[in-house]
Structures are given as C-alpha cells and as structure tokens.
Design goal:
The protein is an alpha+beta fold. Helices cover 32% and strands 22% of the residues. It has three helices and three strands; from the N terminus they run E-E-H-E-H-H. Strands 2-1-3 form a three-stranded antiparallel beta sheet, sandwiched between helices. A hairpin with a 5-residue loop joins strand 1 and strand 2. The chain is globular.
C-alpha cells in the first residue's frame, strides 16, 4: 500500500501552507530549496513542518488537504497542537 501525506508548513512570513504528497521527505526538500520557483513557499522560506498525517488512500488524503486548506488559522493551529476537541468549535462563522 502506497502512503500519502497531508502536511502543514509554517512559512517565514508566519503563514501556513497545506499540501499533499506521496513522498514527504522529497516534498519538504523541494519546499526548503525553492525547487518550484513560482510556488507559494518559494518566496516564504525558510519553512518548518508543523504537522503531517499519513493516509493509505490518496483520494482521502486529497479530500482532507482540500478541507484543511479552507480552515481558519485558529483551527489549523488546534490541529497542529493536537487540540482535537476544539476543532468542531473553530469552524468559520460568518456574521
């Protein structure tokens, strides 16, 4: 079974980047070196891996990546800090 990973990076400008990959080590190297010159992280280095989750089904990993990308900063930080009980209360609300 091939593994896939959803990951969250913290960039030098204090923003978060969420991605999905089947080779986490290689992808982190690419982010760190600016391999893709026009990518989000290329101009925001250095980066720090804050969180990753392993999946055995790439379709689930892609769905989770899309879900996390829509989350607020507070919700991403709760995930990073392992505050799983807080996640439901941190959904974005429009008033």
């Amino acid at each position: 079974m091939k593994k896939s990973y959803v990951y969250i990076l913290k960039c030098a400008d204090d923003t978060y980047y969420t991605g999905v990959t089947s080779n986490l080590e290689q992808r982190l190297f690419q982010h760190s070196t600016g391999f893709y010159k026009n990518s989000y992280t290329s101009k925001r280095r250095p980066i720090t891996l804050m969180f990753y989750a392993e999946f055995t089904d790439i379709t689930i990993a892609i769905a989770k990546e899309k879900q996390v990308k829509k989350w607020s900063r507070a919700k991403k930080e709760a995930l990073i800090n392992g505050e799983f009980d807080s996640l439901i209360n941190l959904a974005k609300k429009k008033f």
